[in-house]
Here is the input.
Amino acid sequence: MEKVLIITGGSRGIGAATARLAAEQGYAICVNYRHDQEAAHSIVGSITQLGGRAIAVAADVALEGDVIHLFQTVDEQLGKVTALVNNAGILERQMRVEEMDAARLNRIFAANVIGSFLCAREAVKRMSTKHGGPGGAIVNVSSVASRLGSPGEYVDYAASKGAIDTLTIGLAKEVADEGIRVNAVRPGFIYTDIHASGGEPNRVERVKESVPMKRGGQAVEVAKAVLWLLSDEASYTTGSFVEVAGGK
Ligand code: NAP
Here is the structure.
Protein backbone atom coordinates (compact mmCIF):
# COMPACT_ATOMS: atom_id res chain seq x y z
CA MET A 1 0.00 0.00 0.00
CA GLU A 2 1.37 3.44 -0.92
CA LYS A 3 2.12 5.75 2.00
CA VAL A 4 0.21 9.03 1.56
CA LEU A 5 1.36 11.99 3.66
CA ILE A 6 -0.32 15.34 4.21
CA ILE A 7 1.97 18.07 5.56
CA THR A 8 0.17 21.23 6.59
CA GLY A 9 2.23 24.36 6.00
CA GLY A 10 4.55 22.43 3.70
CA SER A 11 5.52 25.30 1.44
CA ARG A 12 8.57 26.43 3.44
CA GLY A 13 10.65 25.94 6.58
CA ILE A 14 10.21 22.73 8.59
CA GLY A 15 7.23 21.61 6.50
CA ALA A 16 9.13 21.90 3.20
CA ALA A 17 12.14 20.03 4.62
CA THR A 18 9.79 17.28 5.82
CA ALA A 19 8.11 17.08 2.40
CA ARG A 20 11.45 16.62 0.62
CA LEU A 21 12.72 13.97 3.05
CA ALA A 22 9.42 12.09 3.04
CA ALA A 23 9.40 12.00 -0.77
CA GLU A 24 12.88 10.46 -0.70
CA GLN A 25 11.46 7.79 1.62
CA GLY A 26 8.71 6.88 -0.84
CA TYR A 27 5.67 8.79 0.45
CA ALA A 28 3.21 10.38 -1.96
CA ILE A 29 3.00 13.94 -0.63
CA CYS A 30 0.36 16.62 -0.27
CA VAL A 31 2.02 19.97 0.36
CA ASN A 32 -0.62 22.14 2.00
CA TYR A 33 -0.13 25.90 2.13
CA ARG A 34 -2.21 28.98 2.84
CA HIS A 35 -1.02 31.83 0.56
CA ASP A 36 2.29 31.14 -1.12
CA GLN A 37 1.27 29.10 -4.17
CA GLU A 38 4.60 29.64 -5.93
CA ALA A 39 6.60 28.24 -3.01
CA ALA A 40 4.30 25.22 -2.66
CA HIS A 41 4.48 24.45 -6.38
CA SER A 42 8.25 24.74 -6.31
CA ILE A 43 8.46 22.05 -3.56
CA VAL A 44 6.09 19.83 -5.55
CA GLY A 45 8.20 20.40 -8.71
CA SER A 46 11.40 19.40 -6.92
CA ILE A 47 9.74 16.16 -5.75
CA THR A 48 8.18 15.20 -9.09
CA GLN A 49 11.46 15.95 -10.91
CA LEU A 50 13.07 13.20 -8.84
CA GLY A 51 10.28 10.78 -9.76
CA GLY A 52 8.12 11.27 -6.65
CA ARG A 53 4.37 11.85 -6.47
CA ALA A 54 3.21 15.17 -4.99
CA ILE A 55 0.43 17.73 -5.16
CA ALA A 56 0.00 21.21 -3.67
CA VAL A 57 -3.36 22.09 -2.07
CA ALA A 58 -4.27 25.54 -0.76
CA ALA A 59 -6.26 25.44 2.48
CA ASP A 60 -6.32 27.58 5.59
CA VAL A 61 -6.29 24.94 8.34
CA ALA A 62 -8.16 27.31 10.64
CA LEU A 63 -11.23 27.01 8.38
CA GLU A 64 -13.28 23.82 8.63
CA GLY A 65 -14.48 23.95 5.02
CA ASP A 66 -10.90 24.33 3.75
CA VAL A 67 -9.73 21.34 5.81
CA ILE A 68 -12.55 19.14 4.50
CA HIS A 69 -11.67 20.20 0.94
CA LEU A 70 -7.97 19.47 1.59
CA PHE A 71 -8.62 15.87 2.68
CA GLN A 72 -11.18 15.24 -0.09
CA THR A 73 -8.68 16.46 -2.70
CA VAL A 74 -6.08 14.05 -1.33
CA ASP A 75 -8.65 11.18 -1.38
CA GLU A 76 -9.26 11.87 -5.06
CA GLN A 77 -5.73 12.66 -6.27
CA LEU A 78 -3.36 10.60 -4.08
CA GLY A 79 -5.53 8.07 -2.20
CA LYS A 80 -6.48 7.79 1.47
CA VAL A 81 -4.09 9.53 3.83
CA THR A 82 -1.88 7.24 5.96
CA ALA A 83 0.28 9.92 7.60
CA LEU A 84 -0.39 13.48 8.77
CA VAL A 85 2.07 16.12 9.94
CA ASN A 86 0.27 18.95 11.71
CA ASN A 87 2.99 21.49 10.99
CA ALA A 88 1.21 24.72 9.99
CA GLY A 89 1.69 27.28 12.71
CA ILE A 90 1.92 31.03 13.18
CA LEU A 91 3.18 33.54 15.67
CA GLU A 92 2.77 37.31 15.71
CA ARG A 93 4.77 40.37 16.75
CA GLN A 94 6.62 40.00 20.04
CA MET A 95 4.71 41.63 22.93
CA ARG A 96 3.68 41.13 26.53
CA VAL A 97 0.37 39.49 27.46
CA GLU A 98 -1.15 42.79 28.63
CA GLU A 99 -0.84 44.14 25.07
CA MET A 100 -2.58 41.21 23.32
CA ASP A 101 -6.09 41.75 21.94
CA ALA A 102 -8.76 39.12 21.34
CA ALA A 103 -8.40 39.27 17.55
CA ARG A 104 -4.75 38.23 17.81
CA LEU A 105 -5.50 35.46 20.32
CA ASN A 106 -8.24 34.13 18.05
CA ARG A 107 -5.88 34.06 15.05
CA ILE A 108 -3.16 32.22 16.98
CA PHE A 109 -5.44 29.63 18.53
CA ALA A 110 -7.46 29.13 15.31
CA ALA A 111 -4.40 28.37 13.18
CA ASN A 112 -2.28 26.48 15.72
CA VAL A 113 -4.85 24.61 17.80
CA ILE A 114 -8.17 24.38 15.94
CA GLY A 115 -6.31 23.71 12.68
CA SER A 116 -4.48 20.75 14.22
CA PHE A 117 -7.70 19.38 15.75
CA LEU A 118 -9.60 19.62 12.44
CA CYS A 119 -6.83 17.94 10.45
CA ALA A 120 -6.47 15.21 13.11
CA ARG A 121 -10.22 14.64 12.95
CA GLU A 122 -10.23 14.17 9.17
CA ALA A 123 -7.17 11.91 9.38
CA VAL A 124 -8.66 9.69 12.10
CA LYS A 125 -11.87 9.26 10.07
CA ARG A 126 -9.80 7.80 7.24
CA MET A 127 -7.09 5.92 9.19
CA SER A 128 -8.93 4.34 12.12
CA THR A 129 -9.57 0.59 11.93
CA LYS A 130 -12.82 1.45 13.73
CA HIS A 131 -13.92 3.17 10.51
CA GLY A 132 -12.51 0.44 8.24
CA GLY A 133 -9.20 2.25 7.67
CA PRO A 134 -5.71 0.73 7.58
CA GLY A 135 -4.28 2.69 10.54
CA GLY A 136 -1.68 5.43 10.27
CA ALA A 137 0.50 7.91 12.08
CA ILE A 138 0.13 11.56 13.09
CA VAL A 139 2.96 13.86 14.14
CA ASN A 140 2.13 17.23 15.67
CA VAL A 141 4.71 20.00 15.51
CA SER A 142 4.74 21.52 18.96
CA SER A 143 7.60 23.64 20.35
CA VAL A 144 9.87 23.90 23.37
CA ALA A 145 7.85 27.09 23.91
CA SER A 146 5.14 24.86 25.44
CA ARG A 147 7.36 24.28 28.47
CA LEU A 148 9.40 27.54 28.40
CA GLY A 149 6.37 29.88 28.03
CA SER A 150 8.04 32.51 25.77
CA PRO A 151 7.78 35.41 28.26
CA GLY A 152 7.96 38.88 26.74
CA GLU A 153 7.69 37.45 23.23
CA TYR A 154 4.57 35.35 22.62
CA VAL A 155 3.00 33.59 25.57
CA ASP A 156 -0.09 33.08 23.36
CA TYR A 157 1.94 31.04 20.88
CA ALA A 158 3.54 29.04 23.70
CA ALA A 159 0.10 28.33 25.19
CA SER A 160 -1.17 27.16 21.80
CA LYS A 161 1.72 24.67 21.72
CA GLY A 162 0.75 23.55 25.23
CA ALA A 163 -2.65 22.69 23.77
CA ILE A 164 -0.92 20.74 20.99
CA ASP A 165 0.95 18.72 23.63
CA THR A 166 -2.33 17.85 25.34
CA LEU A 167 -3.95 16.97 21.99
CA THR A 168 -1.02 14.61 21.38
CA ILE A 169 -1.41 12.85 24.74
CA GLY A 170 -5.19 12.57 24.62
CA LEU A 171 -5.62 11.60 20.99
CA ALA A 172 -2.77 9.06 21.23
CA LYS A 173 -4.67 7.23 23.98
CA GLU A 174 -8.02 7.61 22.21
CA VAL A 175 -6.90 5.87 19.00
CA ALA A 176 -4.07 3.64 20.27
CA ASP A 177 -6.02 0.43 19.68
CA GLU A 178 -7.33 1.63 16.30
CA GLY A 179 -3.98 1.38 14.49
CA ILE A 180 -3.05 5.06 14.82
CA ARG A 181 0.03 6.42 16.60
CA VAL A 182 0.09 10.10 17.59
CA ASN A 183 3.34 11.79 18.61
CA ALA A 184 4.90 15.24 18.59
CA VAL A 185 8.21 16.95 18.02
CA ARG A 186 9.26 19.97 20.04
CA PRO A 187 11.69 22.04 17.97
CA GLY A 188 13.84 24.68 19.65
CA PHE A 189 15.29 27.65 17.74
CA ILE A 190 15.25 26.67 14.07
CA TYR A 191 16.43 28.84 11.15
CA THR A 192 13.18 29.54 9.25
CA ASP A 193 11.12 32.57 8.18
CA ILE A 194 8.71 32.25 11.12
CA HIS A 195 10.84 34.59 13.26
CA ALA A 196 10.22 37.46 10.83
CA SER A 197 6.52 37.28 11.77
CA GLY A 198 7.57 38.07 15.33
CA GLY A 199 9.39 41.18 14.07
CA GLU A 200 12.88 39.69 14.54
CA PRO A 201 14.11 37.77 11.47
CA ASN A 202 17.51 37.14 13.09
CA ARG A 203 16.10 35.95 16.42
CA VAL A 204 17.95 32.63 16.32
CA GLU A 205 21.31 34.47 16.17
CA ARG A 206 20.36 36.49 19.26
CA VAL A 207 19.17 33.55 21.37
CA LYS A 208 21.49 30.76 20.26
CA GLU A 209 23.98 31.32 23.11
CA SER A 210 21.23 30.21 25.53
CA VAL A 211 21.15 26.80 23.83
CA PRO A 212 23.46 24.22 25.47
CA MET A 213 24.76 23.25 21.99
CA LYS A 214 25.35 26.98 21.26
CA ARG A 215 23.68 26.93 17.85
CA GLY A 216 20.31 27.11 16.15
CA GLY A 217 18.85 24.09 14.39
CA GLN A 218 18.20 23.39 10.72
CA ALA A 219 14.74 22.49 9.42
CA VAL A 220 16.01 19.15 8.12
CA GLU A 221 17.10 18.17 11.66
CA VAL A 222 13.45 18.49 12.72
CA ALA A 223 12.27 16.69 9.58
CA LYS A 224 14.41 13.64 10.45
CA ALA A 225 12.70 13.30 13.84
CA VAL A 226 9.27 13.70 12.23
CA LEU A 227 10.04 10.99 9.67
CA TRP A 228 11.25 8.61 12.38
CA LEU A 229 8.04 9.07 14.37
CA LEU A 230 5.96 8.44 11.22
CA SER A 231 7.91 5.30 10.35
CA ASP A 232 7.48 1.70 11.43
CA GLU A 233 10.79 2.10 13.31
CA ALA A 234 8.65 3.90 15.91
CA SER A 235 5.99 1.16 15.96
CA TYR A 236 5.67 1.04 19.78
CA THR A 237 5.92 4.81 20.30
CA THR A 238 2.76 6.84 20.83
CA GLY A 239 1.85 9.83 22.97
CA SER A 240 5.56 10.73 22.98
CA PHE A 241 7.61 13.86 22.42
CA VAL A 242 10.93 14.18 20.64
CA GLU A 243 12.81 17.35 21.55
CA VAL A 244 14.87 18.78 18.68
CA ALA A 245 16.30 21.73 20.54
CA GLY A 246 20.05 21.32 21.11
CA GLY A 247 19.46 20.59 24.80
CA LYS A 248 17.39 23.75 25.47
P1 NAP B 1 7.31 29.06 8.57
O1 NAP B 1 8.63 29.04 7.89
O2 NAP B 1 6.71 30.36 8.98
O3 NAP B 1 6.26 28.24 7.65
C1 NAP B 1 4.94 28.16 8.05
C2 NAP B 1 4.17 27.36 7.03
O4 NAP B 1 2.83 27.23 7.52
C3 NAP B 1 4.07 28.02 5.68
O5 NAP B 1 4.09 27.00 4.71
C4 NAP B 1 2.69 28.70 5.72
O6 NAP B 1 2.11 28.78 4.42
C5 NAP B 1 1.93 27.71 6.53
N1 NAP B 1 0.75 28.22 7.22
C6 NAP B 1 0.67 29.19 8.14
N2 NAP B 1 -0.59 29.35 8.57
C7 NAP B 1 -1.33 28.44 7.89
C8 NAP B 1 -2.71 28.12 7.88
N3 NAP B 1 -3.59 28.77 8.66
N4 NAP B 1 -3.11 27.13 7.06
C9 NAP B 1 -2.25 26.46 6.27
N5 NAP B 1 -0.93 26.73 6.24
C10 NAP B 1 -0.49 27.72 7.04
O7 NAP B 1 7.33 28.18 9.90
P2 NAP B 1 8.34 27.07 10.48
O8 NAP B 1 9.35 27.75 11.31
O9 NAP B 1 8.75 26.13 9.41
O10 NAP B 1 7.36 26.35 11.50
C11 NAP B 1 6.66 25.15 11.23
C12 NAP B 1 6.09 24.65 12.53
O11 NAP B 1 7.16 24.47 13.46
C13 NAP B 1 5.12 25.63 13.21
O12 NAP B 1 4.08 24.91 13.81
C14 NAP B 1 5.98 26.29 14.27
O13 NAP B 1 5.21 26.75 15.36
C15 NAP B 1 6.87 25.14 14.67
N6 NAP B 1 8.11 25.55 15.33
C16 NAP B 1 9.03 26.32 14.68
C17 NAP B 1 10.19 26.69 15.35
C18 NAP B 1 11.26 27.54 14.72
O14 NAP B 1 12.17 28.00 15.43
N7 NAP B 1 11.20 27.78 13.43
C19 NAP B 1 10.40 26.28 16.68
C20 NAP B 1 9.44 25.50 17.28
C21 NAP B 1 8.29 25.13 16.61
P3 NAP B 1 1.99 30.21 3.65
O15 NAP B 1 3.39 30.74 3.54
O16 NAP B 1 1.37 29.88 2.35
O17 NAP B 1 1.14 31.08 4.55
Summary: Residues 8-9, 11-15, 32-36, 60-62, 87-90, 111, 115, 141, 143, 187, 189-190, 192-194 surround NAP (CB under 6 Å). The two ends are 39 Å apart (CA to CA). The longest strand covers residues 180-187. The chain has nine helices and seven strands.
